Structure formats: structure tokens, C-alpha cells
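Propose amino acids for all 432 sites.
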């Protein structure tokens, strides 16, 4: 651990987008930075749904934090879970994977611990409806989705096959919309000719949400485009419904009039709702910070906790002007917090823009920005993206966050003749 007398100690909790971009802003300064995360891997969460449907492997959406930050000589990564904080002593209590507790001292603390899946008080739903917030969750979803097609192939009863070919998703946010569209594409394109008994094109994908439309938090224009795209793909929308029960054979949903309907579906996936991790409650108790309904920490315009300017909360764990929990907000808040700490420790007056999409909201001098203008996630990739073999370096915007819709497929592989002549990318059909 850094010595107590060492000045300029910065601790970042969380290695997601917020923590990663905060670390980038603190690169090369005359201070020591400690990045604490339970996993030594950074997970590119916006592409978890492609991992869940087999489009990408888990290795293509993860990268070691130490490798991503290998040029940051003033930073070290610690694999541990932050469980408590002492603002008076300015220490964070962490637990190593083996269970050992230790304290990390800080002068400035940046909290980017993210959020976790919420079942709104019905944690018993988790065994039947897995969420998707980690690589482990994505692999669980992948096993269930592909397993459903396999079981449908061997089912002798048409009714049983129909149940296995019905997929119900709870939650009309970005994850639910992306996953619903990808499952339909998987059934109608990727697996269309793979089975003899089951017909993957008959797969039904049901999307449930309590709001009026999917992606309602992104404004009417983007929400309307999502509706049209989902319907074109064949996704059945059940808006204005609340799921009241989930079991091994399906779910029960209640509409606004109080009528309950039973839906038979052997595969139920939960993409609705998030809540802050336990560390948020510990931070609130220690600092007196206010929490919103999801347990996120309410912060000031400069992302600090009232009464504790040395503590900044960023990304999904912060509650500020109803900003959506998307990658773009996490990145820009991470840059803002990192440059703010850097200026306070070194007196530098960086001219680099602190934020792009959300800068006016995060910068008190820039005025307010309407929440509808904040997300710049493009069209949320309802079709497969062209994804590079490795993650973009910190500071480069991921390909599907640049504000454009990418329907591109990866380029066809070209075979090469031993003598150097290019062969066609597809082998011609045998005629006989």
C-alpha cells in the first residue's frame, strides 16, 4: 500500500467505463493512483448481448485492466472488492478474493462501482430469469438460448416445441431491446437451416415493459425507431405490463387495467431494472449522502458528494438530473472527475474537452442540457455490428457509440491459393 505520508493519493473504485476513463485522465501525474476492482478484466458491457447470443466470444469483449493501463506508470490495479469507507480517516476498506481485509488510504476518491441487476424485491425470479450484467450472466443466457433450440429439435410434442421456441424478455431498456432483436436474427438467419424437426424461424420473442414504449428514456424519436425496427424483426411488444410471477414454464403479466395474462415460455430473461451495489449504502451511511430509489448516490453538478468534495461518484452509480445509465455518460463523467482531481492536485489548466455528449450537463459553466439529447448510442445496434478483434484503447469511442447505426457484417474471409492467387470467399455448390 502507498505510505500514509505520500501526497496525491487517488483511489478509483471500479474498472468499468467510468473508472477506466477517470484513470486515463490521471495518467502521468505526480501522484499515485490505485484502481480497485473485483475482476482484473474490463468488460465491454454494451456488447454483452452479442456474447449471450454467440456472435462474439467472451474473450472479444474483455481485456485485462493492467494491459489497457500498461502505460500508466503512476497507476496500479488491485483485485479486491470495496466494502466500506471512512471519510474521516480517508481510507477504503477492501476484501481480497481470499477474504482478507485491508485498507487503502486516499486523498481523492472516485467511485465508479456501477450497478447490479434488480428484481424489484422478487429475488426468487433469478433462478428462472437470469439477468445480464456480467460475462458469467451472458454465458448463462447463451446456454439457455441455444439449449432451447436443441431441446425443441428433440421434442415430439408440438406444444412442447412451441414453448421451447418462445423467449420472453422482461425490460424494454437498451439491453432488452438489443437482446430481443438479436435472438430474432439468430432464429431467422443464423440458425434458420441448422435443424430438421424444429423450425427456428417460428421462434417467438416477447418483450415486456411497464412503460408505454421501449427506450422511452431516450426520447420519442429514438423510441419510435426502436419500435419499428423491433416489429420488422418480428418481436412481439407487450408494453404497459408488469410481470408478477416467473416460473420454469413462463411468466404472468398484469396490464394497467389489472388483468393478468399467462404466457408460456421456457426461456425467460430479465433485463429490467438495476440497483446500486452494497458499497453505495456503505458510502451513504459514512458520508450522509442521499440515495435515490435505486440506491444510487445523489451528487452535485461537479459529481462530488455534498460536504465531501474529495469524493466523486460517477457512471451508473451516480444520480444526476436523470442521466441514463449508458456507457457514454460513464465515459464522460469519468473524464470529468479525473481531470477535476488532476487540476486540484497539480494546478494544471487542461484545454482538453472534458465531455462531449454530456459536457454541458456535467460542466456547471456550460449550462443545462435536456436529458433527451444526452444519449448518443446511435440506434442501439439491433443488428450485428462489425466489431474489431480487440477492444478500443481508452479514450477512443467504441464503434457503436459514435452516433450512427451499423448494419454491417464482418467482411468475408478470403482464401489464398498456394501460388498467391486469391480464391473466392465461398465454395461453389457441388452440382451432380
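Proposal:
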Amino acid at each position: 500500500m502507498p505510505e500514509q505520508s505520500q501526497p496525491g493519493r487517488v483511489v478509483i473504485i471500479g474498472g468499468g467505463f467510468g473508472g477506466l476513463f477517470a484513470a486515463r485522465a490521471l495518467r502521468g501525474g505526480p501522484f499515485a493512483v490505485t484502481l480497485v476492482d473485483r475482476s482484473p478484466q474490463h468488460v465491454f458491457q454494451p456488447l454483452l448481448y452479442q456474447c449471450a447470443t454467440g456472435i462474439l466470444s467472451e474473450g472479444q469483449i474483455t481485456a485485462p485492466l493492467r494491459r489497457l493501463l500498461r502505460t500508466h506508470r503512476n497507476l496500479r490495479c488491485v483485485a479486491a472488492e470495496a466494502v466500506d469507507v471512512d471519510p474521516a480517516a480517508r481510507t477504503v476498506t477492501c476484501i481480497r478474493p481470499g477474504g482478507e481485509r485491508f485498507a487503502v488510504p486516499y486523498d481523492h476518491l472516485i467511485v465508479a462501482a456501477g450497478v447490479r441487476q434488480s428484481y424489484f424485491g422478487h429475488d426468487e425470479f433469478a433462478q428462472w430469469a437470469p439477468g445480464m450484467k456480467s460475462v458469467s450472466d451472458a454465458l448463462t443466457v447463451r446456454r439457455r438460448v441455444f439449449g432451447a433450440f436443441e431441446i425443441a429439435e428433440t421434442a415430439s410434442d408440438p406444444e412442447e416445441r412451441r414453448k421451447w421456441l418462445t423467449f420472453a424478455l422482461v425490460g424494454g431498456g437498451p439491453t432488452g431491446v438489443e437482446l430481443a432483436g438479436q435472438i430474432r436474427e439468430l432464429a431467422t438467419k443464423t440458425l434458420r437451416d441448422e435443424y430438421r424437426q424444429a423450425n427456428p424461424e417460428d421462434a417467438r420473442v416477447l418483450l415486456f415493459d411497464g412503460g408505454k414504449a421501449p427506450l422511452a428514456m431516450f426520447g420519442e424519436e429514438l423510441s419510435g425507431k426502436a419500435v419499428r425496427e423491433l416489429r420488422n424483426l418480428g418481436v412481439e411488444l407487450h408494453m404497459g405490463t408488469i410481470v408478477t410471477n416467473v416460473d420454469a414454464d413462463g411468466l404472468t403479466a398484469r396490464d394497467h387495467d389489472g388483468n393478468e395474462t399467462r404466457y408460456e415460455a421456457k426461456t425467460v430473461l430479465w433485463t429490467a431494472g438495476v440497483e446500486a451495489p452494497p458499497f453505495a449504502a456503505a458510502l451513504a451511511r459514512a458520508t450522509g449522502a442521499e440515495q435515490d430509489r435505486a440506491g444510487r448516490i445523489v451528487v452535485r453538478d461537479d459529481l462530488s458528494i455534498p460536504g465531501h468534495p474529495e469524493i466523486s461518484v460517477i457512471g451508473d452509480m451516480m444520480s444526476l438530473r436523470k442521466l441514463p445509465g449508458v456507457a457514454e455518460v460513464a465515459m464522460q463523467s469519468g473524464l470529468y472527475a479525473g481531470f477535476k482531481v488532476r487540476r486540484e492536485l497539480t494546478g494544471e489548466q487542461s484545454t482538453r474537452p472534458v465531455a462531449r455528449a454530456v459536457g454541458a450537463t456535467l460542466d456547471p459553466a456550460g449550462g443545462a442540457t435536456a436529458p433527451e439529447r444526452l444519449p448518443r448510442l446511435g440506434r442501439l445496434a439491433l443488428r450485428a455490428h462489425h466489431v474489431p478483434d480487440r477492444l478500443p484503447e481508452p479514450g477512443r469511442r467504441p464503434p457503436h457509440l459514435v452516433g450512427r447505426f451499423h448494419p454491417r457484417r464482418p467482411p468475408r474471409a478470403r482464401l489464398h491459393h498456394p501460388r498467391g492467387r486469391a480464391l473466392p470467399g465461398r465454395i461453389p455448390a457441388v452440382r451432380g
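Residues 1-5, 351-432 have pLDDT under 50 and may be disordered. The chain has two domains: 9-115+276-380, 123-273.
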